[in-house]
Amino acid sequence: MPIIGNIIKGFIDVRDKLSGEKNPVEEQQEVLKKLLTKAKDTAFGKNYRFEEMLKAKRPEVGFSQTVPFHDYNKMNDEWWHLLHEGRKDVTWPGEPDYFALSSGTTGKTSKRIPVTDEMIAAIREAGIQQVYALSNFDLPADFFEKGILMLGSSTDLQQVDGHKEGEISGISASNIPNWFRGYYKPGEEIAEIDDWDQRVQKIAEQAADWDIGALSGIPSWMELMLQKVIDYHGLNNIHEIWPNLQVYTSGGVAFGPYKKSFNALLGKPITVIDTYLASEGFVAFQARPETDAMQLVTDGGIYFEFVPFQPEYINQDGSLVKDAPSITLDQVEKGTDYVLIISTVSGAWRYIIGDTIEFTDVERAEIKITGRTKFFLNTVGSQLSVNKLDDAVQFLEDEFSMKIPEYTLCANRIEDEFYHCWYLGTEDHVDNEKLATSMDNYLKSANKNYKVARSKALEGVKVTTVTPEMFYDWNGRNKKKGGQVKMERVMGEDKFAEWEEFIQQQS
C-alpha cells in the first residue's frame, strides 16, 4: 500500500480545496502595486515616477501610458547593461545572483536575462501550485512516490563577475527545494554534465535503476532521450523500463506537432500537462484535465498586459509599434490573439516576451500559445501564425498517416515569384508534390487570408522532406543541443539560405 503516496495525495487534495476560488483580475492589480512599490527607488522606477503612479486610483493606467514597451535589446541597451558594469538598483533593487542565457529560436548570441531571488521564489511557488493542481487529474496515490525526470539544461552554472549564468531550466533545477531532491532525477551529478549527448548516455545507463512516474522537458529533446533509453536497452517502448510512467509535463513549444511521434515511444497512454516556463519567468500551467489550455500565474511575480495581434501593430522584426494599444486582464476577450507583455520581479518592464496567446476561458485566465511575433508569416499577406502552421502539419500527419515532429518554412522568392517553402522532418516517405498540394489545399480552405494571398502574390507551395535529425543537428551547430533550444518555425530569407546550404552539406 502506498502509505507515503496516500499522505501526499491527501494533503494535495485538502490544500487544493482550502485554496478557494481565484480572482485573477484582483490578483493582477495587487501584483502591479507590489512591483511598483518594490522598484520605486531603483533607477528605472525613479525615471518613470513609480511613486506617483502608486498614488493614483488606477496605477495600471499611468503605468501603460508612461513606461514604453521593451524588447530584450531595448531593455539591455538602456538598462541591464549597467548590471554588468557593477551598478545596483537598476531596474530592481540590489543586483541579480543569476542571469538566464537564452538564444531561444532566433540566433547564436545568448541573451542574458536577470533572475533575482524573488523570481526564483516565484518560479518555485508556481511549481508548487502546479503540484497542488494535480489533484484535479485523478492520479493514483502511488504516483506521488515515483521519480520525476526533469530533462533541462545543465545545472553546472558558470560563475561570471559575482553571479552565475545558465539556462533557466538549469537555474531552476539547481534551486529545487530539499524535500524534492529525493524525487528528482537524473540527480545532481548527471544534471551537471554540460554535453547533451554525454548526459543522455548517462541517463540511459542508469534508467533501469529508476522508477519514473513523470517526465518534464521540451518535447523534441525528450523524444531523443526516450529513444536513446529504448535503443540502449533494446526495448519496444519506454514503459518496458518505466512501467509506472503516467505524466509528461511538456513545455517550451506546442506539444501538438510532437504528439504522434511521442506517443509512438509509449506502451500505454499517459497524461500530458502543458506548462509555460520562459527565461523571464513561470507564466502559466495546465490546471485541469478538461482542457489543454494553461492558467496564467496571476498571483506570482509577473504582471501581464496584452496587445491585440494585428498587422498594423507589429513591425517586420516582430517588435511592437510605439503607440500599439495595450489592455489589462479585465479587458481581454476570448478567441482573440494577443501579444503578451510582462513586467516581473526580475526587473523586466513592459517586456515583449515574443509569444502570442489567446484566451480560451477569460474568467479562469486560461490561455493557449498561438505563436511567436517573429514567426508570423505575412510576407505576402497570408497572415499565418504558428498555431495555424501547426494545424497544417497535423493535417498532413492525419492525411498521410505519417509523423512530422519538426518543420520550418520561409516565404522565399524564386525567380521573382514568392513560394512558401517547407521543410518537413519525417522518417516517412511520401511524395513531396502530393504533400505540397495537400498542404496548399488545406491552408486555402482553413484560412481566408492565405486563400487571398494565393490568388495574388503567393505563387504556391514547395515541400522538401528530411529526417528529423537534420533539425537537431542544425540546432547543435547553431546553438546547443538540449535545454531551452527550440527550432525556428519561420525563417527569413537569409537564414533560410543558410539552412538550405546546411541541408545540402549533410546530404
Put the structure in a nutshell.
The protein is of the alpha/beta class and 507 residues long. The chain has helices spanning 3-18, 24-39, 43-47, 50-55, 59-66, 72-78, 117-133, 168-173, 188-191, 196-206, 219-233, 259-263, 386-400, 432-446, 448-454, 468-478, 493-506, and strands spanning 98-102, 111-115, 147-151, 158-160, 163-166, 184-185, 212-217, 247-250, 271-278, 281-285, 294-296, 302-308, 337-344, 351-361, 366-372, 406-414, 417-425, 458-466. An 11-stranded mixed beta sheet has the order 6-3-7-8-9-10-11-15-14-13-12, sandwiched between helices. A 4-stranded mixed beta sheet has the order 2-1-5-4.
What is the CATH C level class of the domain at 377-506, in words?
Alpha Beta
Tell me the strand order in the biggest sheet.
Answer: 6-3-7-8-9-10-11-15-14-13-12
Tell me, briefly, the overall form: globular
Q: What is the average of the pLDDT values?
A: 87
Estimated helix fraction: 25-40%
- Percentage of residues in DSSP E strands: 15-25%
As for the CATH topology of the domain at 377-506, it is: GMP Synthetase, Chain A, domain 3
- Secondary-structure-based class equals alpha/beta
Count of DSSP-assigned helices = 17
Measured on Cα atoms, how large is the radius of gyration? 23 Å
| Largest sheet properties | 11 strands, mixed
Domain GH3 C-terminal: 388-492
Protein name: GH3 auxin-responsive promoter family protein
Pfam families: GH3, GH3_C, GH3_M
Domain GH3 middle: 297-362
